[in-house]
Amino acid sequence: MRAAVINSFGGPEVVEIIEAELPEPGPGQVRIKVAAAGLNPIDAAVRSGFMGGAGKRLGLGWDVAGEIDAAGVATGWTVGDQVVALAYGTAKSFGTHADHVVVDATAVATAPATADAPHAATLPLNALTAAQALDLLALKPGEHLLVTGAAGAVGAYAVQLAHHQGLIVTAVAGVADEQSVRGLGADHFLPRGTVPGGQDVDGVLDAALLGADALAFVRDGGAYVGVRPGAHPEGVRGIRTDAVEVGPDGARLAELAELVDKGVLTLRVAETFPLAEVVGAHTRLAEGGLRGRVVLVP
After folding, report:
1. 190-225 pLDDT, tens per residue?
2. Which residues neighbour 133 within 8 Å (Cβ) at sequence distance 6 or greater?
3. pTM metric for this prediction
4. Domain identity same for 111 and 183
5. Which CATH number do you get for residue 43?
6. Pairing mode, strands 108-110 and 82-86
7. Closest Cα partner for 88 from 115, 128, 50?
C-alpha cells in the first residue's frame, strides 16, 4: 500500500509517499480501506517536529472515512461496513494518509448516511475535540458560551453542538464570517480582536488559542477550555481552566454521525487532493484561510 510519512522534520516538502506492506488487524482491531482522510494542523505540527519523534519514521493522518476490509476477532464490525474513525497518536508508523489503516474497533463508528466520504472524513478529530471540550466546560442549558475561532473546523463544530445543547453562543471570528457562524447557530457575534467590555460569559471554548486574553470575557467563577493540551492559562478570579486532549471514542463518534444525518452538524470540505499530491495539500494547509478541511483521497 501507499502511505504518507516523514523521515525528517521540515516544511511540506519532507512528506514522502512510500510503499509499505498491507497491515493486518489484530484482535479488537479493524482495517479500513481509506476512501478519504482529513488533513489537520496536528499533521503539520508532527511534520514540523513540534510533537517530537526525531529519528523515527512517522505516519500522518488522524481522520478517516472508508470501508472495513478486514477485521480481527471480537470487533463487532463486518467487512463492507462503511465507517469513520479517529486514528489517534503522533508517533504512529502509519496514519490515515494511506491506502489502508488499522485502528482499534472501539475508535470506529458507522459513517453518516447523508455524507460522501470526503465530507465524512472531516468529522472525527474536529467534532470529537469540540464535543469533549464542551464536556470539560460542563455548562448547562441557558448558560452563555463564547467560542473563539468560531469559523474554523473545531470552532464551527463547537458552535453547532453548543447551540444543540441549548447554550447561548457568542461566536468570535473574522468580520467576513459573521453570517456563516450565525448560520451555524451563534446567537451573538464579536469580530476577531474585540476588546471585552465586561466579564459576562459563563465559559470560553478557545479554539483560536487566545490563551490568557480569552479569560477577560469570562465571569468570576466561570470556565475556560483550550484545544492545545497542556497550554491552558492559569485561572484568575476563580475561573476554572483546562485544555482538551482529544481521545478516540467510537460511541461518541456514532452520536456525532447521527447528528450529521439529522442536520444538526454541517460538514465542510475546503479542498480535496489526491494522496499522490500530499505535498501540495500540506502547502495549501500552510497558506491558511481555509473554511473547512483539506481532504486527501486515494
Report:
1. 999 987 877 789 999 999 999 999 999 999 999 999
2. 154, 158, 205, 225, 227, 244
3. 0.95
4. no
5. 3.90.180.10
6. antiparallel
7. 128
